[in-house]
Amino acid sequence: MHFQATPAARRPVALRALALIGGALMLAGCTSGASEAPPSDLTQLELHPVGDPGRWFDNGYADGVVATYATANTVCGIADDLVIEMQAGPNNGSRVLARPLAGGDVRWEADDARCTPGAILDGSALIARSWTSEPDWQIVDAATGETTSDLALENERSSVKLVAQIEDLLVLSNAEGALSGFRGGAPVWTTMVPANATITPLDDGHLGVLDGLDDRLVIVDGSSGDTVLEQDVERADGITWASDGYVERINQSDPEYAFFDVSGTEVDRTVGSSQYRFVPSPESGITFPVADHVAAGGVVGVSADGIPSLYQDQRQRDFTPEGSIELPDSIIALRGISADGALLLFRTDADGLIFVDGTGAEVFTWPIASGELRIEAGLLVVESGPTTQVLLPAGISPVA
């Protein structure tokens, strides 16, 4: 396997040196034409993604999809060359097992156990053993299935999720809204957040909590569980998390955006220019500093090294580092980007997945009629009805 983006804990992705030459995007001076060069200020801009590098898809997809791994089991996560699944059995029973993506025998399994999607973090898996009696929640090595930590979650049957790892502290959440930090398997802090809230790991151990029903924003210090900031916002769907704060959309039709640090202090404001969300996005586990959002409002696609790979000028013309580009859909319909930034992924109702290069040329398509698409451990995962497919790129050879 030759993954360029391997799964890891939420941490800064390796970057080249900062080169914010010119500071902000200056796009209006571009000339028109099919062979138009990309805006020079953008080609010199480097951003600072923070999070799981497995949210960029593997560069090997440039050679197409060589095979698929398909299962009717619940896919709880992917770790290196293994897919961790939960297989349902009779009488509400189930087991957790790990299979190589390229095929072959089961690597390890745990009887009378359960896991849920999102159970993998930095090579560890969260599973519940003895599910039919009193669940025994454990952190296991995803490669071997060996228990590395027993969690003091007594008879916890709600949905428990891994949120973040902050040094030696593991942060978990449950369906009731309990957010807890564990060290050595024991809770060291617990705080309650709205049960329906989304939780996004930020930088420096902070956690962004957004309540979409009550339009409320909370920032928690994940090391201590202390609330750093709690306030109402105009609209929760107008908030974009940054690694060291957040961006608030004040007005979309007459563009105005405000930028805040983790204390809620406004540090900048822009008027007249749209502010796009970067891909990969906070929802997928990647954030960028506030300064990147201020400097790169027209950027959408970003490589794992922080180089803008797809962006738009103030005249709504689309560019890659190769020049102007015709896209198969709107620029904001970008669904994923390869680790090196050379391959862009869109999804349309007619064609399914469409992969294009930096010139706009179609590299290949992959039909999917419906279902959820996500990128995990550098791989494309499609859930459709009772079946989950993992699309395997060149470099993963199926077992004959």
What key phrases describe this protein's structure?
400 residues; mainly beta; Methylamine Dehydrogenase, Chain H; five-stranded antiparallel sheet; four-stranded antiparallel sheet; 2% helix; globular
Textual characterization of the structure:
This protein has 400 residues and is mostly beta strands. The chain has a single domain (11-22, 38-393), classed as Methylamine Dehydrogenase, Chain H (7 Propeller). 2% of the residues lie in helices and 44% in strands. It has helices spanning 40-43, 290-295; strands spanning 11-12, 50-51, 65-71, 74-79, 82-88, 94-100, 108-111, 113-114, 120-121, 124-129, 136-141, 147-150, 160-166, 169-174, 178-183, 186-192, 198-201, 206-211, 216-221, 227-232, 239-242, 245-251, 256-261, 266-271, 286-287, 299-302, 308-312, 318-320, 323-324, 336-337, 344-348, 352-356, 362-366, 372-376, 379-384, 387-393. Strands 8, 9, 10, 11 and 12 form a 5-stranded antiparallel beta sheet that branches. A 4-stranded antiparallel beta sheet has the order 3-36-35-34, with no helix packed on it. It has a 4-stranded antiparallel beta sheet with strand order 4-5-6-7, with no helix packed on it. A hairpin with a 5-residue loop joins strand 19 (216-221) and strand 20. The longest helix has 6 residues, at 290-295. It is globular. The two termini are 17 Å apart. Residues 1-35 have low confidence and may be disordered.
